[in-house]
């Protein structure tokens, strides 16, 4: 008992010493050149010595807070209109001054590789369209960039790893930054005329469950297959480690090494792992909204039917975590690609479309700009522009057409399916007759069909299905699809067949 008491005193004394020597410190999301969200209370937080009084000043406002027993402090400054540059001054036992702070709109860009893909491309074989020209022109001092380093954690972290601090948008900074996010911000800033801050928190080849908090996953019984898949992945990892040893032994013995099947990365596919390390540390910071491009990794046959529940749960989870129940969430529907035939991108795209039932969500359709044998289409300009249109309509309340035709309902009549859409003004076929439509009778067996435009609706029929019940469009992994509206925006793939 005396030994335990002595150890306790030593540990306590060490903690007191560390606390006494602690300097005021801000998390990685704060640095010079950053953008703070306009028209919302400005949250500033960090570490200091326990009991230390910390003051923060910005523009013509200031506030003070006292660090708690663990050395954490947090305060809010009053909401401010767009403007800058300003200095954010933090004073305690030491002083921290951040220069060139702008107040504007802050957007988080997240998802997997098509959002991660930088303006320079991943490599010469997967370029961005007009990459070098776009990089050379990327001088936008009113756009600021922050790149979060890839990381995973078993529990929510208070800070993330940053590749660098905030940077002013320049050719050098934009080169390695998300191309989709850059094109989104460029278009938006030119329309809104306020500073735009972008946080790039992405990791290629990752599933939505890795970006969702453990609280959200574990509280929804419908999402339990996520944990079953994790257990299976861990079994594969153990088997893989044994295979690695056998392969090494085979090489030493001069034997051929067998080709092993692909299995998920046990780190980046960990449920909630990316949320914990790359999203949770950002959630105390008010933001204008989220742009998201992900889904390809959830299109496998084991998990694709879960996406219609998983993706909305992730969006609602993020809104809870940010304490912003109407946080605009704008996402890209996965493009056309000749994926593994076992994967079902049609089900995944339709799950994304159905997620639009959540308020303040928008979907950028990209079915027309996919590349059959390239999962990373080069045209990221149109993706960013379409996300910008959605932001202008949803987040900024502009009166404009921000989406292509979206399936509303369909009914059978006189041997044809009659299909109605939202955003249907000026329906048209691009490049020839309409393609990509199929219909089915009550048995659910779909066959190719002919579609005809009737004002703002369609009539879809086939002589082989005299009594149709269901209709779908652009359903294959790489479909031929060419339905657009007068705004030049493509129609979303859909099915009227019941959701599994």
What are the salient characteristics of this protein?
single chain; 500 residues; alpha/beta; four-stranded antiparallel beta sheet; 11 helices; 23 strands; 25% strand; disordered N terminus
Characterize the structure shown:
- It is a single chain.
- The chain has a domain at 406-495.
- The radius of gyration is 26 Å and the shape is globular.
- The chain is 26% helix and 25% strand.
- The chain has eleven helices and 23 strands.
- α9 (307-322) links the parallel β11 (289-293) and β12.
- The chain starts with a helix and ends in a 5-residue tail after the last strand.
- Mean pLDDT is 92; it is low at 1-20.
- The protein is of the alpha/beta class and 500 residues long.
- The strands form five sheets. Strands 1, 3, 4, 6, 7, 8, 9, 10, 11, 12 and 13 form an eleven-stranded mixed beta sheet that branches. A four-stranded antiparallel beta sheet has the order 14-15-20-19, with no helix packed on it.
- It has helices spanning 2-21, 113-116, 131-136, 171-175, 179-192, 214-218, 225-252, 273-279, 307-322, 345-354, 381-394; strands at residues 35-37, 42-47, 53-58, 61-66, 72-77, 83-91, 95-111, 140-147, 167-169, 196-202, 289-293, 329-332, 361-364, 406-413, 416-422, 428-429, 437-440, 446-448, 450-454, 457-461, 470-473, 483-484, 494-495.
């Amino acid at each position: 008992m005396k030994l335990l008491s002595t150890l306790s005193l030593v540990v306590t004394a060490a903690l007191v010493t560390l606390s006494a020597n602690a300097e005021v410190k801000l998390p990685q999301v704060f640095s010079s050149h950053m953008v703070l969200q306009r028209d919302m209370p400005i949250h500033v937080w960090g570490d200091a010595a326990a009991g230390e009084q910390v003051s923060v000043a910005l523009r013509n406002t200031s506030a003070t807070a006292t660090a708690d027993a663990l050395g954490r402090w947090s305060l809010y400054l009053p909401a401010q209109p767009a403007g800058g540059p300003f200095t954010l001054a933090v004073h305690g036992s030491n002083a921290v001054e951040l220069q060139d702070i702008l107040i504007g709109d802050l957007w988080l860009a997240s998802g997997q590789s098509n959002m991660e893909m930088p303006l320079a491309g991943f490599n010469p074989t997967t370029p961005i369209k007009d990459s070098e020209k776009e990089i050379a022109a990327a001088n936008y001092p009113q756009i600021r960039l922050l790149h979060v380093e890839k990381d995973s954690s078993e529990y929510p972290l208070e800070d993330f790893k940053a590749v660098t601090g905030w940077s002013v948008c320049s050719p050098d900074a934009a080169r390695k930054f998300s191309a989709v996010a850059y094109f989104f911000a460029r278009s938006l800033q030119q329309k809104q005329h306020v500073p735009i801050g972008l946080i790039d928190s992405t990791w290629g080849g990752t599933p939505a469950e890795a970006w969702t908090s453990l609280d959200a996953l574990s509280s929804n019984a419908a999402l339990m297959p996520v944990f079953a898949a994790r257990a299976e992945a861990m079994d594969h990892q153990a088997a893989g480690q044994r295979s690695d040893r056998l392969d090494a032994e085979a090489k030493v013995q001069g034997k051929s090494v067998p080709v092993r099947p692909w299995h998920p990365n046990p780190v980046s596919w960990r449920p909630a792992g990316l949320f914990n390390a790359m999203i949770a540390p950002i959630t105390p910071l008010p933001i204008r909204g989220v742009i998201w491009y992900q889904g390809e990794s959830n299109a496998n046959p084991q998990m694709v039917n879960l996406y219609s529940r998983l993706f909305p749960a992730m969006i609602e989870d993020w809104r809870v975590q940010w304490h912003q129940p109407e946080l605009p969430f704008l996402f890209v529907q996965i493009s056309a690609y000749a994926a593994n035939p076992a994967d079902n991108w049609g089900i995944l795209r339709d799950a994304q479309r159905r997620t639009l039932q959540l308020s303040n969500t928008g979907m950028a359709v990209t079915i027309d700009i996919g590349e059959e044998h390239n999962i990373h289409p080069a045209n990221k300009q149109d993706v960013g522009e379409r996300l910008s249109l959605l932001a202008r309509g949803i987040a900024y309340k502009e009166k404009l057409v921000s989406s292509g035709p979206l399936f509303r309902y369909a009914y059978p009549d006189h041997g044809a399916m009659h299909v109605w859409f939202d955003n249907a003004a000026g329906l048209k076929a691009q490049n020839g007759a309409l393609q990509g439509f199929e219909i089915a009778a009550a048995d659910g067996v779909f066959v190719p069909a002919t579609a005809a435009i009737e004002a703002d609706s369609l009539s879809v029929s086939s002589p082989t299905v005299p009594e149709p019940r269901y209709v779908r469009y652009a359903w294959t992994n790489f479909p031929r699809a060419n339905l657009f509206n007068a705004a030049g925006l493509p129609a979303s793939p859909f099915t009227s067949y019941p959701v599994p």
